[in-house]
Amino acid sequence: MGMDRREFIRISGLAALLGLSGKGAFELVRPGQVEAAMAAKPEAQGVVRWAMVVNMQKMDEATAAKCIEACHRVHNVPDFTKPKDPKDAVPPEILNRYEVKWLWTEHYHNAFPGEEPPVMPEKIAHLPFLLLCNHCDNPPCVRVCPTKATFRREDGIVNMDMHRCIGCRFCMAGCPFGARSFNWRDPRPYITQDYPGYPTREIGVVEKCTFCAERLAQNMMPACVEASKGTLIFGDLNDEKSKVRDTLKRYFTIRRKVHLGTNPQVYYIV
Amino acid sequence: MLERALIGTKRYYLLLAVLAGIFGVGFLFYLQQLKFGLGITGMGRDVSWGFYIAQFTYLVGVAASAVMVVLPYYLHNYKAFGRVTILGEFLAVAAVTMCVTFVLVDMGRPDRVMNVFKYPTPNSVMFWDIIVLNGYLLLNILIGWNVLECERHSVAPPKWIKFLSYVSIPWAVSIHTVTAFLYAGLPGRGYWLTAIMAPRFLSSAFAAGPSLLVLLCLLVRKYTKFDPGREQIQSLAKVVTYATLINVFFFFCEVFTVFYSQIPDHMLHFQYLFAGLDGKARLVPFMWFSIVGMTITAILLTNPKLRQNENTLAALCGMVIITTWIDKGLGLMTGGFVPNPMEKVTEYAPTVPEAAITLGVWALGFLVLTLLYKVAVSIKEEIRS
Known about the structure:
The structure holds two protein chains of two kinds. Chain A is α+β, with helices and mostly antiparallel strands.
C-alpha cells in the first residue's frame, strides 16, 4: 500500500484527534498488520533454529577437556591460573571469583540440582556434564538487558554485543544456569596463546558462549562440536533431515531447569 | 537561597570538611577501580552484585519514605507535618543522589552509561528504574525548593507545585516497587522470586526512612534554632512503629511460604543465611541479630512510654535503621546469589577498597544532605525571627 507523507500526516493527525493511540492508530494506517505481527510465527521452511545435543553416553573427562580447550582457545578466554607474566599471578582463594568460562563441566547433582534420584548409577553421578549457554527460546538475560547488548537472533542464538554492554550484570542475575562471566579485570595478561580470529575483551563487560556464531557464518561447526568427535551433535532443529533432530527423535533427552520456562536448546542424552 | 549553604559556624565547616575528606578517599579508591576493574571488590562470578547494589536498594527505600511526611500533609491536611515536609523531601534528594551514584560505581563500563538512553529497552526493569528514580529526584528538588522559597516570602506555593506534590505520592511508591521488580522477576533466584518483595521493600522503607528522619529532627533541634517539633517527631514515631510491625509480619509471611512448601530452591537461601550451608555461615550472626532485633524493637515501639521518651525513641530508631540495613544491605544481595545456580556456595565479603568507595558515596550523600538542610534550617530560623 503506497502512502505519501501528506497522507500519513493527515491520517495520523486524524488519529491523534480521535484520541487513538498505539494499536488504534496502527489500525487506521496499516489495517490488520498488528495482528499479523502479534500472531505466533509459523515454523516457516528455511528458518534455522540451532540446537545442541550432548551425548553423555559417549562423554568422558578427556573429551570434555578437549572441547573446553578448543572453545576457550578460539575465543581468547583467559585462564587466570596461567598468567603470561608471573607477577600477574592471582591468589588461589580468589581465582573462582575472576573465572571466565564459556564451556565447563559439573557433576549431575550440580548440573541438574534437585533432580537427582536418591539411588542412581555411580557412573552417571560422576560423569562430567558439559555445561554452556542454553540459547534459550525465552531467555531471561535478553529480557533484563537495559541496552539490548544481549539479544536473540532469528536463528535462536542468544548473542552479545560486547561493545554495547555497560557491565550492569543484570543478565548474570537473570540467567538461571550460571552461564555468564564478567571481566572483573583485564583478561589479556591471562590469554596464553592469542587467537587472531576472535576479539579479546576489555574489563567491565559480560561474555558467554555464542554457539560459535562467527564460525557458523563461515559454514564451520562450533569449535567444541568439532573437537568432540561425535559426542556433541549440533544442527538445525527445524530441518527434518538434520542429525540433531534425528537424534532427538531416537533418544530420550533431558534439559536443565525446564520448569523455569526458558526453553533451553541444549539437550542431554544420559 | 543557596548562599545560606555557604555561611555557617566553625562546626558546620568542620562537618563539611570531614564529609568531603571521606568522599575524597572514596574517590581515590574509585579511580583505582576504574583502572583495575571491579575485581578490586569482593564480588565475583557467583555473587555478581554486592555492597554497591545493596546500598542502592536500601537508599531507594530511604528516598521513598519522604512520602510518609508528604502524604499526611497533602492528603489528610495534617498541618503539623508542614514543618518537616522539607526535611523529608531534602532527605529524599540526598538519598536518590546516593542511589544514582551507587549504580554508577557498580557499572563495569560507566563510560557507556548513555547507552541506556541511546537504546531504550522497555522490557528491562532497569530502564524503568532509571526513569522513576530520576523523575523522583527532579520532583523533590522542584517541590522542596519552591515550597521553601514561598515560605521565605510568606506566600502560598503556586498551584502547579501542589499538583506535583500529589504526583510525588504514588511516584514514591513506584520507585521502591520498580526497584523490587529488578529482583522479583528473575526465574532462577529463589530468594527473590516472591510477590511480597515489593511490599516488604516498602514496609522496611517506611520503617527505616522515618527512623532516620526522627534522628535528623533530633539533631536539627539540638544544633540549630529550628525545632521540628515534638508532635511531629511523635507522629513519625507512630509511622515507624506500624511500619516495623508490618515489616516483621511480612518477613514471617515469607518464611511460612518458603518452609511450609518445602521447595528446596527457595529454602536453601534461607538456610544459608540463618544456619549456613556446606559449612559456610558468614552471615548467620548478622541475620539472627537483624530479625530478632527487629522483632524486639517493633514490640518495644508499641509501648507509648518508650516512644514518648526521646532518648529511648532515638535508640529504637537506631535499631530499626541497623536491623533493616542488615536485612536489605547484607542479606538481600548475598542471600539471593548463595547458593549459585549449580547449588554451590561461594561466600561474599566486601574488600577494603569496596568499603572505602561505599563510605565515600555515603559521605557524598550526607554532604548533599548537610548543604540542603543548612539552607532549609536557615530559612526556617529567618522566618521565626
